[in-house]
Amino acid sequence: MQQSVSFKVYYEDTDSLGVVYYANYFKFMERGRSEFLTHQGRSVADWNADGFLLVVHSVQATFKKPAVLGDVVDIVTTFTVPSVYRGRFAQRVERAGELLVDGIVDVVCLDANQNLIEFPPQLRALAD
Amino acid sequence: MQQSVSFKVYYEDTDSLGVVYYANYFKFMERGRSEFLTHQGRSVADWNADGFLLVVHSVQATFKKPAVLGDVVDIVTTFTVPSVYRGRFAQRVERAGELLVDGIVDVVCLDANQNLIEFPPQLRALAD
Amino acid sequence: MQQSVSFKVYYEDTDSLGVVYYANYFKFMERGRSEFLTHQGRSVADWNADGFLLVVHSVQATFKKPAVLGDVVDIVTTFTVPSVYRGRFAQRVERAGELLVDGIVDVVCLDANQNLIEFPPQLRALAD
Amino acid sequence: MQQSVSFKVYYEDTDSLGVVYYANYFKFMERGRSEFLTHQGRSVADWNADGFLLVVHSVQATFKKPAVLGDVVDIVTTFTVPSVYRGRFAQRVERAGELLVDGIVDVVCLDANQNLIEFPPQLRALAD
Predict the structure, then answer these.
(1) What is the pTM of this model?
(2) Of B47, B60, B107, C18, whose CA is between 20 and 30 Å from C40?
(3) What is the pLDDT of residue D4?
(4) Is the ipTM above a cut-off of 0.90?
(5) What is the domain-level CATH number for residue D45?
(6) End-to-end CA distance of chain B
(7) What's the structural domain count of chain A?
C-alpha cells in the first residue's frame, strides 16, 4: 500500500543556499513514515506504548532537485519487511508529481528496553 | 482577525526529556505566522518577491505545559502594527484548547536590500 | 561569574534569507547554558542523573544583528536565582565583541518525576 | 588526508527516544565536511564566494550505535573525487574510537548560478 502525505516548506527547512537543507528531507521522510503508520491504524506513540520502537538502521537517498520556501512536497511511502529483523520504507519526496528526493530507510524493531527483536506479526502485517 | 492552524508533533520536534524542545516551539510559531499571511491572501514567498521581508526583531514566550510526540498543536495568531516600524504577532500554542505556550513576536520590515523600512500600507492592512 | 563559549555557524543554522534562523539562536543559547554548567563542574547529564531537570520557563530575546554562514559566535552567559523557584540566565550572542542577540532565559527546576521543586542549594550556589 | 573534528551532543540533537535523532547525524557530518575544507585552507563561505557551491547529491549511512546527551562525537572525514562531476566524503561518527555512524556523502559542484560544473582543479587537489 502506498501512502502519501503533504507538507509545506517553511523557513526552518531552508538554508542559506536558498533551498531545503539536505538533512531536513529526512525530517519530512520521518513525518511520512509516521503518517503511514497512523493511516494504517496505530501511531508511532501507540506502537511505542505497546513496547515496539521502530528505529532507523540505515538510509540512502538521492537528492535530484531542490525544494524551496513555500513549496508543498508530497511524501510517498511504501513499506516492506525484507527479513525478520528489518523493515524497509521506500520513500519519495515529490512536488506536483516531480521527483525531488528518492530514498530507502531501513528500520529495526526494538522492545521497550531498546533490545533488538524480530518484527512482530502486527508490524509485518503493514507490509505490502 | 485570529487565524489558527494545526500541526502534529513528530520526533524531530522532541528532545531527550520526552517533550518538545523549547526552541522548536518558535518553528511552530513561524509556521503559524506564515499561514496567517497565506490565509490573508499572500504567502511569505509572495511578500519576499514583492521586496518585503518580515524579519523577527524580538520575541517573548512563556512555556506553560509541554507537548509530546503525536500531539496536535494549534497555533493561534493575531497581528497588529503598534508603530510604523513594528508589526506584532501575538501567538498561542494550544492543545485541545489548553494553552501550552504564550508568545509575542515583533517583526520589522526590510526591503529587498535588507534595509529597514516602514511597514507598507498593504501589510498594515493585515492588522486587526 | 560570566562564562563564554564559541560556536561556528554552519548551513544547518541558516535559512533562505541568508542569515541564522531566529529559532536557532536559542539552540546556541542552550549550548551556552550547558557549557556554563559544565564549566562549573557538573554537566546537564550529571544534574539530570542527580534528579534535577532544568527546564525553560520563559524567554525573551532581541535580535539586533544577524550572523551568517562561517561566523564564529560567542555565547556569554551569567546566572542568577531571583526566587526560590526560578533561575535566570542572561545571555548574549556576540561576534567579535559586537552584540547580535540579547536574551533572558528563565528556568525552573523539576525533580526526576518532572514535578516543580525549589532550586536546590547546590544549583543556587552557581549563581553570582 | 583524514580530518577529525569533535562536537558535543546537546538537547537540540536528541529526540524523545533519548538518543540523537537520526537526521541530526547529517548535521554533524556536514560540520565535519565544513571543517575538512577549512582545515585544507578555504572555508565553505570562501568557496562560495569564489563561485563554487558544493551540494549534496546522495547519501548513505548506517546507524550502528546511538549517541546520547553530553557525548562528545568525533567526525572523521576523508575526501576523494571519483569522477569529474562527483566528490565523495567518507565519514564516520565515532565516540571514543567506537563507530556510531558510517556514511558516504557524494557532492556535486555548482557554479554561482547553481549550474552543474566539473570539479575544478583546486577542489580536486583536496582529494587524497
Answers:
(1) 0.98
(2) B60
(3) 98
(4) yes
(5) 3.10.129.10
(6) 6
(7) 1
